[in-house]
Write a structure and sequence with these properties.
Layout: H1 50-53, E1 62-66, H2 83-86, E2 93-95, E3 101-103, E4 106-111, E5 117-122, H3 136-147, H4 156-160, E6 163-170, E7 173-178, H5 185-189, H6 199-205, H7 207-212, E8 220-226, E9 230-235, E10 259-264, H8 268-277, E11 282-283, H9 291-295, E12 300-306, E13 309-315, H10 325-334, H11 337-344, E14 349-351, H12 365-374, H13 379-388, E15 409-415, H14 421-433, E16 438-444, H15 446-454, E17 460-466, H16 472-477, H17 491-502, H18 506-523, E18 526-539, E19 543-544, E20 547-549, E21 554-556, E22 561-562
Parallel strand pairs: 1-10, 1-11, 15-16, 15-17
Antiparallel strand pairs: 2-3, 4-5, 5-7, 6-7, 8-9, 9-10, 11-18, 12-18, 13-17, 13-18, 14-18, 19-22, 20-21
Helix pairs in contact: 10-13, 11-14, 12-18, 17-18
């Protein structure tokens, strides 16, 4: 088992694509707000027009290409958390680029013996970007607002678990008290949704204004937001490296770059064109079709990381013929991931055999190796296992029949929201044909896909799930508290998942994670396929010192400098 501290950057809980939808405010009037450095009254003023803002920034600033228009920059209310907010909000603890939990605004913490209380000891002298001091009372205010039903936070139920109370012991000591232990509590404490901000500042500007130009404890703060055009930031003069002492960082103080602009460009061709001209300096996401073009550009540095999203084939385990474990196991051996990756996703992925991805906290190399050995690519062995389950080609037409003469002909559903699914499905279709299984591909509208699957109307489907913690297995497979997808329910699996979810000690928790993984591997309710490689790109003739954290799937601007 990989030893990693007990994790993000992007709020990704993918059950269809994400449990927290990527909401976006479209069309309409463009608005922006005045800089908090000049006013904390809460009033907003109209800035330059969106049309003129599309021109390249004239000031010396780092320009980051961005494809969305956020719903809000308030991390507790947003449906999408990414770099636009992670550079504003610093959490109590961080996830380092080596996968361990390290200090943040809290210089240390302890977990009680029963796992129900986490005590954080804050650093002294913390200030937000406007110089407002941060104490335990601010932490209490932030968490209580996050918990409050009126906040209507989409991420709070997942990240806070059964948090009951936030208790201040003194100015620099605060406790999170849970109704029951929550296994991934420290993992999720690294999320920017739990980033700390000043109660005084929040109350002085109000909730709406806070969502438009938040000021907090991270390395930058928002000065201007023109919807559909750009978001401007200035560095936090009070930010220190000790707020995120990741070993890959060297800058002791505030970031070197004073100003950052997220330039909103939704059309991929335009984004790439502006990047190649040098008007955009950093790309956070590279469309697959432009990968080779940018890779061959000497002025572009591309940094890969592995997404914590698993692409997989799911079976309806309560429906014939997938109610037979041997059939599901046979299909696991009939799938060759190499051509799926090479031709289905242009080689930009790595094969996965177990139910977790290496960049998920709790990933076990031991269980990945076990799954790979249990289900090697072996079509002949797959045919033998299918024959053992009663499936044989009785009439010589190349398609298997059961003892009653029923053909092994099934539907595989794919969603319109999965752009690569059709190519991947066709490769799977061809591979299963080689062992006598006829697969018909059915394309289902994304808006109705998960509803139909949860009703159990499918036989098999192609989809993805992801979360940066092994807790994803609980949400996918628990018989009463999980989503309905594969209908693979067992009492021993429920027990392992529950213990995994209520065990805070990392070493003990790993035992239950592996136990759950083994049950899933042996029971084969799915065929894990691959995890995609993603790339961050930057213009090396314009900027240097950008670093990537593969676990948070974020970039660090602390050491970055404009040339």
């Amino acid at each position: 088992m990989k030893k990693r501290g007990f994790i993000s950057f992007v709020l990704v809980f993918v059950l269809l694509a994400a449990v927290v939808a990527a909401g976006c405010i479209g069309g309409g009037t463009q608005t922006s707000t005045q800089s908090p450095a000049s006013s904390t009254s809460g009033s907003a003023t109209t800035q330059s027009s969106p049309t003129s803002s599309q021109a390249p920034a004239k000031e010396k600033m780092l320009v980051i290409g961005y494809t969305r228009d956020p719903d809000t920059l308030d991390v507790q209310k947003s449906t999408w958390i990414d770099l636009t907010t992670s550079i504003v909000f610093a959490p109590l603890v961080n996830l380092a680029s080596n996968g361990s939990i390290i200090p943040g605004l809290a210089e240390s913490y302890e977990v009680s013996s029963d796992g129900k209380v986490i005590t954080f000891h804050l650093r002294k002298g913390i200030k937000d970007a406007l110089g407002n001091p941060i104490t335990a009372e601010d932490v209490k205010f932030d968490f209580e607002r996050y918990m409050a039903p009126e906040t209507k936070s989409p991420s709070a139920p997942l990240y806070l678990g059964h948090l009951k109370e936030v208790k201040v012991l003194d100015d620099y000591t605060v406790q999170l008290i849970y109704k029951e232990p929550y296994g991934p509590a420290l993992t999720f404490a690294t999320m920017q949704s739990m980033g700390i901000f000043s109660k005084k500042y929040f109350e002085s500007v109000g909730e709406v204004e806070f969502g438009q130009h938040p000021v907090a404890t991270g390395p930058y703060y928002v000065t201007k937001w023109v919807r559909g055009a750009y978001i401007d930031y200035e560095r936090n003069p009070y930010y220190k490296r000790e707020y995120n002492p990741d070993p890959v960082l060297t800058n002791p103080g505030p970031p070197y770059i004073e100003k950052v602009r997220f330039r909103i460009i939704k059309e991929p061709f335009t984004m790439i064109s502006e990047f190649e001209k040098g008007n955009v300096h950093v790309l956070l996401d590279i469309p697959t079709e432009y990968y080779k073009q940018l890779k061959n550009n000497p002025h572009v540095t591309m940094v890969p990381f592995l997404e914590y999203i698993l692409h997989y084939i799911g079976f309806n385990c309560k429906k014939y013929p997938f109610n037979d474990t041997r059939v599901r196991q046979a299909i696991n051996m009939a799938i060759d991931r190499k051509p799926i990756i090479e031709y289905g996703v242009d080689g930009l992925a790595v094969p996965i055999h177990g139910p977790l991805v290496p960049t998920m906290m709790g990933y076990s190399q031991k269980m990945e190796d076990y799954a790979k050995q249990k289900y090697p690519y072996d079509p002949e062995k797959a045919k033998e296992l299918l024959a053992e389950a009663g499936w044989k080609d009785r009439d010589g037409d190349g398609i298997l029949e059961d003892s009653q003469g029923r053909k092994f002909e099934v539907e595989m559903w794919i969603s319109t929201g999965e752009p690569e699914a059709q190519k991947v499905a066709q490769i799977i279709q061809d591979q299963l044909k080689q062992v006598g299984i006829k697969v018909n591909i059915r394309i289902v509208e994304e808006s109705s896909f998960t509803d139909l699957v949860s009703q159990g109307k499918h036989q098999m489907y192609l989809l993805r799930y992801g979360l940066m913690d092994a807790q994803i297995l609980f949400y996918m497979f628990h018989s009463t508290k999980g989503v309905k997808r594969m209908f693979f329910y067992r009492s021993d699996l429920d027990e392992a998942l529950e213990k995994m979810g209520t065990t805070v000690d990392p070493t003990e928790r790993e035992k239950y994670i592996e136990e759950a993984e083994k049950i899933l591997i042996d029971g084969a309710p799915m065929v894990p396929l691959y995890a995609r490689k993603a790339f961050i790109a930057y213009r090396n003739d314009i900027v240097e010192g950008i670093k990537v954290n593969p676990y948070t799937q974020s970039i660090y601007l602390d050491d970055a400098k404009l040339k």
